[in-house]
Amino acid sequence: MAFLESIFHQSPEIALFLSLAGGYWIGKFQFGKFQLGGVAGSLLVAVVLSQIGIAIDNGIKAVLFALFIYAVGFESGPQFFRSLGRKSIREIVMAAVLAISGLLTVVVLAKMFGLDKGLAAGIAAGGLTQSAIIGTASSAIGKLGLAAD
After folding, report:
1. Low-confidence ranges of the chain (pLDDT < 70)
2. Which residues pair with 34 in a beta bridge?
3. Rounded to an integer, what distance in angstroms lies between the CA atom of residue 60 and that of residue 70?
4. Residue pLDDT, tens place only, 115-132
5. Distance between CA atoms of 141 and 107, rounded to whole angstroms?
6. At what angle do helices 38-50 and 58-83 cross, to 10 degrees?
7. CA 147/CA 45 separation, integer angstroms
8. 32: left (phi over 0), alpha (psi -120 to 50) or beta
9. 3-class SS of residue 1
10. Phi, psi of 148 (to 5 degrees)
11. Which of 82, 84, 115, 141 could share a disulfide with 119, CB 3.0–4.6 Å?
């Protein structure tokens, strides 16, 4: 394990490509009717590899996060637009109510408990299981010009 850790610290791109290759390999396995897919498999392998403590450049992180969001949208986008119709109005209203109530809950509780913007954004992303919130909040907080702490 120490050997792999030293290799990943010297060349973090190896861990990056290993997470892609391993993720697509894992994504091919089927569990009954369920198949994880390459994007989710790569994300899981990357999470496991990140436990070693590999430092990746922030620019690369931003590009790869954008590619992840694009890949998820590319896979689910056509199905979403095909499913739109008269019967989907109820689901659209429910999604809007969920998004608005989730945002209001996070804002009110963050103000009530005195949470900073970064922690509130993390709670929103985790509570609403929205990875897009993490990217948007990170970008917005980065443009504020605040100290890292």
Report:
1. 1, 146, 148-149
2. 31
3. 15
4. 887 788 888 888 887 777
5. 15
6. 150
7. 32
8. left
9. coil
10. -60, -35
11. 115
Reading the block at residue 134, the tokens are: 């993490």
CB 88 within 8 A of CB 66: no
Beta strand 34-35 with 30-31 is: antiparallel
Sign of CA dihedral 10, 13, 16, 21: negative
What's the CA gap between 36 and 30, in Å, rounded?
7
Residue type, 138: S
Output the pLDDT for position 19: 87
Give the DSSP H or E segment for 71.
Answer: helix 58-83
Q: List all residues 6 or more positions away from 134 whose beta carbon is below 8 Å from its beta carbon.
A: 65, 121, 122, 125
Q: How many CA atoms lie within 13 A of 145 on its CB side?
A: 0
Q: What is the DSSP string of 6-47?
A: HHHHH-HHHHHHHHHHHHHHHHT-EETTEE--HHHHHHHHHH
| Token pair recorded at residue 33 | 């009717």
